[in-house]
TrEMBL record:
Protein name: Glycosyl transferase
InterPro entries per record: UDP_glucos_trans (IPR002213)
Alphabetical UniProt keywords: Transferase
Transmembrane domains' residue ranges: none
Region described as Disordered: spans on this chain: 364-413
Gene3D superfamilies, sorted: Glycogen Phosphorylase B
SUPFAM superfamilies membership: UDP-Glycosyltransferase/glycogen phosphorylase
CDD domains per record: GT1_Gtf-like
The keyword Transferase belongs to this UniProt entry's keyword annotation: yes
Natural source organism: Phytohabitans houttuyneae
Gene Ontology MF term list: UDP-glycosyltransferase activity
Length: 413
């Protein structure tokens, strides 16, 4: 069998998707290891995973909006994180000797280290922005990103972009959500990878009222500081539906005032376990949350904040699976109206169901070009990492048939 080294930033939406793929590979008998901040990875993946620790250092907050948010993401996190972790990731490649490096598009060190060591690599695309390339219409922005990558010493020879493997780009969505795009042949849109979560938080299941529609409100793990103005307006919208809606709000205690009776507020909630009970989700349009909802046929109210979220929100609206509101400006009345629309108008749930069906269909066997089998040999003339001795039969360097990742329902919790 083969060895796979996963490199992802310590962010839940990135790690959970990669972790589901890693679990599917492990179940097939392959060896999997991770390179990243050990404490964060073990918190999300459990203590049983093999981790080559890169360490971690603080990075500045991401409070900006619009293009300034893109700039702060790259200059404040993606590039410094890649520079800081690259030496440790290179050591991990040398020590583990993977056949393939699976590198998140925001963990550039994985792609750079793989290229330097002559190892095949695949890009993991857990966000919309780096997949659908919305800045193609803004060539100066694309050029700015490329210059920053080059200036950070993270460029790859032959003109390859470390965000986009020339071998395989694995995206956790489908054309039913992205809309029509002329993706290259080595792009595999496999739908969301929903795996078991290492430690699901406790939840008061008995507090849910079966006579009311359950609505999840979550603005993501990175938006707590900027969502404090949104929560009071959302609370007022929920009060307008108090007789028929019970909300579950993922937020720190004390940050959401004046909620209607019966509202459940917790810093963390078991999202995947809740999904089958939900009638709607109100969220920031993070692709991970959106796809978790749509994988269960749940319509959305999306209030995008920054980064790829406006792109994903536009995709949700175009698919007919939700309503978009303005994160910074929509008042309680507009929010209440949007929630009423997705709860009462059957077209939204029907559209969410169509996207769900596309996600499920993405797990059926697909042509060889959509699997790990398609990755070409290591580039000629480059030195591969020396493989440490191992027990048991010699490893094969191909995956025996079947798609890279199983259908969502096969790896779901």
């Amino acid at each position: 069998m083969s060895r796979f080294l996963f490199v992802a930033p310590p962010l839940a939406g990135h790690v959970y998707a990669a972790g589901a793929v890693a679990d599917a590979l492990t179940a097939r008998g392959h060896e999997v290891a991770w390179a990243g901040p050990e404490t964060a990875l073990r918190r999300m993946l459990g203590d049983a995973v093999s981790v080559y620790s890169t360490g971690m250092r603080p990075y500045r907050g991401q409070r900006d909006r619009g293009f300034r948010a893109v700039r702060s993401l790259w200059e404040g996190f993606v590039l410094p994180y890649a520079r800081f972790t690259l030496p440790a990731v290179e050591k991990a490649v040398a020590a583990f000797a993977p056949d393939v490096v699976a590198a998140d598009q925001h963990a550039l060190a994985g792609a750079v280290a793989a290229h330097r060591h002559g190892v095949r690599w695949a890009s993991l695309a857990p966000q919309s922005m780096e997949l659908t390339r919305p800045f193609r219409a803004l060539p100066k922005v694309e050029e700015w990103i490329r210059r920053r990558i080059d200036g950070a010493g993270l460029s790859i020879a032959d003109g390859a972009d470390p965000r986009f493997s020339p071998h395989l780009v694995l995206a956790f969505t489908t054309p039913a959500l992205t809309g029509p795009h002329d993706f290259p042949a080595h792009y595999a849109l496999v739908g969301p990878a929903l795996g078991d979560r290492a430690a699901a938080p406790d939840f008061p299941w008995d507090a849910l009222d079966p006579a009311r529609s359950t609505v999840l409100v979550t603005m993501g793990t990175l938006a707590e500081d900027v969502a404090r103005d949104f929560y009071p307006r959302m609370a007022a919208a929920l009060r307008a539906h108090a007789g028929r809606v019970q909300a579950v709000v993922a937020a720190p205690p004390g940050t959401v005032p004046d909620l209607p009776p019966g509202t459940v507020v917790q810093p963390q909630v078991p999202v995947l376990a809740l999904m089958p009970r939900l009638s709607a989700v109100v969220c920031h349009a993070g692709l991970n949350t959106v796809c978790e909802a749509l994988a269960h046929g749940v319509p959305l109210v999306v209030a995008p904040i920054k980064h790829d979220q406006p792109v994903t929100a536009a995709q949700v609206v175009a698919a007919g699976a939700g309503v978009r509101v303005r994160f910074g400006r929509s008042g309680a009345g507009e929010l209440a109206g949007a929630l009423a629309a997705v709860l009462d108008e059957p077209g939204y749930a029907a559209a969410a169901g169509r996207v769900r069906e596309s996600f499920a269909a993405a797990g059926v066997p697909r042509p060889r070009r959509h699997t790990w089998n398609s990755l070409p040999p290591a580039p000629d003339g480059r030195t591969r990492a020396r493989r440490p001795p191992r027990h048991g039969p010699p490893a094969t360097r191909t995956l025996a048939g079947g798609p890279l990742v199983t259908a969502p329902q096969e790896v779901s919790s």
